[in-house]
Amino acid sequence: QNSMVLSAAIFITLIGLIIYLHFVKIDQESLLVISSLGIQVTSSYASGKESTTFIEMGQVKDVVINEAIQMQKVIYYLCILLQDPEDPQGVSEVVPLFQSSKPRLDCLIEVYKSCQEILEQRKTAPQAS
Asked: What sequence ranges are listed for the domain Phosphatidylinositol N-acetylglucosaminyltransferase subunit H conserved (predicted)?
């Protein structure tokens, strides 16, 4: 009977580990910004599974670096602000990026600057033509 309990505990632990690796443990996060199309956010899990989210450029109002206080430290993260369809000046949703990898502020600033350059190109392109 003890071996049956031990076998059940090992089986449950293995199932829990597989679920953790497949649905929770993110190995890599990437961001692809194409000014004429939109923003693609991809998360690669430890099991090899990938999750991709696409946001059309027409929905993007801005990209910002936000800060949050967690316990006794400040955490910075990149966010996409989605434009409210009913109010062009408003924000309907805030989409946080890189939640698992939590890159340092200097890395976030580099990504932020690149995103802002692309967003500026998008804003000035219709005026130039």
From this structure: 30-99
